[in-house]
Design brief:
about 0% strand, mainly alpha
Amino acid sequence: MADIDHIERLRTNDLELGATEAVQQHFQRHVVSPKVVSQRKLDFEHARPRWLREMAAEATGVFFYVYPGIAATASFFLNKTDAAFGSLLQVAFAYSFGIAFAIITCAATSGGHFNPAVTIYFAIWQGFPLKKVPYYIFAQIFGSFMAGLIVYGQYHQQISAYVATLKAEGTTSMVFNGGPASIFASFPNPYQSLGYLFVIEFFVDSYIGVVIWAVLDPANPFVAPAGAPFAIGLSYGAMIMGFADITISTNLARDLGCRCVAAIFFGGEAFSYKNYSWIGILVNVPATIFATTYYEILMRDSLQKISKGGAVHEGGEEGLSLHLTKSGISGEKAPPMEKGYANAVEDKSGLRMV
């Protein structure tokens, strides 16, 4: 009993203050005094070009997403005889958590695009400055390229041993699905036609695009800001688990940056193999534009978006009132949400507009 009293007097509960407390309540911690920020540091940070910070964040974010993903892929391909070191589930979760950590780490600085298609559709639908699109895309590809180089260096011995084994078996090209080059970029199976591959890539990327746009919708009651990175990451993971065996790419930057690494170490066939590379590199863009257009035209509820503070009417409060009057929507006459999960969540949270 004396020991228990002693522990209680230590007030160890003070140590529980940390990330959760800071995120939820944003008050000063009582364990450690806040560090003084010097004027020199503030001047340095103010002097940094914004474009440089944004490029660094986009490159770092793509690196955080691609690095664990292709490392898990390397483990999967290089340890086929020992399932403990690699599986498709492992690859899917590596990409999923990589995307979540990329958003958590870098999105506050650049907005967290990490995909040229996402940058392009933000320019189309959200007014993202067109002048920023080229350097965002360059940074994204560069981040993927650096991730590929570093993973190749870390797995160099295992990749070299795999290459030696394949050559001993009479394999002359290292570029094929399941080969060393496919650690870094996707390649089709021998029986797959380009049309077949296009359809696979288009629908997989459209699926991810719709999920991203729904997660970012302020009127969506199911995803809190803190959960958005993981919801987006899991959409990628779901597609990897469903379609990786029949070849998908999902991201122009991821594919092109790492395909360049594959070309450096395994030859130009990384781009010419079965004329597939254009599908892996480019289809993501029109597919994502299709997905966001589909969501905007058929699923977007801008009135709900305005009611949640995610947008304002172009005519201000007066314009919004005029719309509600013309539409016959006011007070208790507001049309009820369709019965189901959304209705229950809205009613419970008290967010439903009346």
